[in-house]
Amino acid sequence: MGEVLFLAHRAPFPPDRGDRIRAYHVVRHLAARHRVHLVAFVDEAGEADHPDLTAMAASHTLVTRTKSRPRAAVEALASGRSVSVAAFADAAIARAVARVLAERPIDAVYVYSSAMAQYLPHGPRPRTVMDFCDVDSVKFGEYARAAGPAGRWLYAREERLLGAFDRGVAAGADASLFVSAAEAQLFRSIGGTGNIQVVENGIDTAFFDPVVAVEEVPAAEPLIVFTGQMDYAPNVAAVSWFANDVLPLIRARQPTASFAIVGRAPVAEVRALGERPGVTVTGEVADVRGWLKAASVAVAPLRIARGIQNKVLEAMAMARPVVATPGAAEGIDHAGTLCVADSEQAFAQAVSGLLSDPVRAVTLGRAARARVQARYGWSARLAGLDALLGLEDAGEWVRTG
Predict the structure, then answer these.
(1) b/e for 204-226, b at 16 or more Cβ within 10 A?
(2) Which residue did the predictor score with more confidence, 16 or 68?
(3) Is 15 left (phi over 0), alpha (psi -120 to 50) or beta?
(4) What pLDDT digit, counting tens, does each position of 282-326 carry?
(5) DSSP of 380-395, one letter per residue?
(6) How many Cβ atoms are within 10 Å of 334's Cβ, its own excluded?
(7) How far is 265 from 263, CA to CA, in rounded Å?
(8) Stretch 375-401: mean pLDDT, rounded?
(9) In the chain, what is the straight-line distance between the N-terminal and C-terminal CA atoms, in Å?
(10) What is the pTM of this model?
(11) What domains lie within the chain, and their CATH numbers?
């Protein structure tokens, strides 16, 4: 039995969005074998009440994050740090980390999201694994190219400073993790060094299973579905592009086709799309599986995408045919079980082709589920974590209460 300090920019409960899902399964894997001490931010105080928290963590400190992005930007500009790092700088978290390291015989530290690496001790420290997931700094470079003059300067600054910070963290970590070989290679291409490893995302195929009974949703056929956090800029851009430029081409061929944007916190730009013919904006739903089960086709039209897209794996696990942009498909070893298209015309043609050929759509969806079952089970994806943390010989410890 080892003792692990787990630092996270967002507590992994409930596992209902991309960053939480990976963190949740990592914590669950580690907690089945070791004592996990969680120090993390929460977006809302109520998130601290999730039952899995006390069931899985030997101890926990959760701090509600109240710092606004404008305040973080001011602090970043004043201190010469990246906004991403300044946004997660908090004295309460620093005290909690220091307390755990002082009071517990910590064998290893797992850092989830590079902004949390600012809390690592500067002197001798336990074995440290840094889970970058993907190369966030490059994403800001992509934002810069699409922004106006002021935004371009800020995003370019963030790309430069966050990239330098991440490279420094990786150089000092015992291992740095990325969700795909493509992300790992991208990090190397911007000068990242150290022990760079790939630990892919997985999918809970027992939960995301089309035969499991879920509440039906009121949706007409044929239905095209996108799922995601709808205040996240790449998701907003994706559904805007699809609704404005792709859906009209599809509806020219299939006039009854509808598009559902499923996800919490839709911003005004997304809500406005719900006024368009054939477009539904659901807001937060209790269970996305009902919408995926009802979907004729699931789409991932992301123009900016990093790492492995959980939304794609979930749709594949639900045996839905998926059409994705190259960026959204990159990193997923799909073996041809999803359709990849880039331009408006190609994307519309791929979706329309599946809508007009239900037999092919069903066949592709079944192949997609079989692929994720064979390739993306969480237990297989996380099997090497204990060795990376230096805990392979620590034995197993199963919490009983």
Answers:
(1) bbeebbeeeebeebebeebbbbb
(2) 68
(3) beta
(4) 999 999 999 999 999 999 999 988 778 999 999 999 999 999 999
(5) HHTTTHHHHTT-TTS-
(6) 21
(7) 7
(8) 73
(9) 16
(10) 0.80
(11) 3-202+378-388 (3.40.50.2000), 223-375 (3.40.50.2000)
